[in-house]
Amino acid sequence: MSEEFHGLNQAKAQVSHIVELMYLQERWLDAEPGDEELGQDPELYYDGDGEPLYDPDGDPVVDEDEIREKIEELPLEFSVRSNWMNPFAGGLVPGEFQLLMCTGGPAVRIVGELGSHNEPQRVEVQYQDWFTPWTAYDFPDSQSWSKVLEFCEVFTSILE
């Protein structure tokens, strides 16, 4: 298997993990307050394919806080950098962000620009292997891209 496939496979795995966590969070947020299945017996709560809702580690998901914690702990690093500006104008304003998902060979990161309200824009998942340049990951569908965008919003929202 070539190095490009190692990086691509890692990017696919990272995106899949993000999408799964974001759907789990959405499912819990959309639950009705009196839903007896939710939080009591996770094996009774199934996704659209009839599969039990488990986290990516195979453990039953029991509450929204655990899902949120897993989302927040997924990236190794969240960083921002500013746009070009006059250094005497004061106050650096973030213009771009990066979520480092994994390092080494292969490595995966999510990069994007920040809008005027620090919302993520032009988000791109990139991957690389040893001695190869960063390569953009092609999302398989718009739903995956949308969930990755929601994932980025979890982190960029703290900038406000």
Can you give a write-up of this model?
The chain is α+β, with helices and mostly antiparallel strands and 160 residues long. It has one domain. It contains 3 helices and 5 strands; from the N terminus they run H-H-E-E-E-E-E-H. The chain has a 5-stranded antiparallel β-sheet, covered by helices on one side. A hairpin with a 5-residue loop joins strand 3 and strand 4. The chain is globular and about 50 Å long.
Quick overview of this protein structure:
32% of the residues lie in helices and 21% in strands. The chain is of the alpha+beta class and 160 residues long.
What is the domain tally?
1
Low-confidence stretches: 36-50
> Sheet bearing the most strands, described?
5 strands, antiparallel
Distance between the termini: 44 Å
- What spatial form do the alpha-carbon principal axes imply? globular
Helix content: 25-40%
Class of secondary structure makeup: alpha+beta
By DSSP, the count of extended strands is 5
From the alpha-carbon coordinates, what is the Rg to the nearest angstrom? 18 Å
Count of discrete alpha- or pi-helical segments spanning 4 or more residues: 3
Main sheet strand line-up: 1-2-3-4-5
Q: Note the run of SSEs as H and E.
A: HHEEEEEH
| Fraction in beta strands | 15-25%
Roughly what is the average pLDDT, rounded to an integer? 79
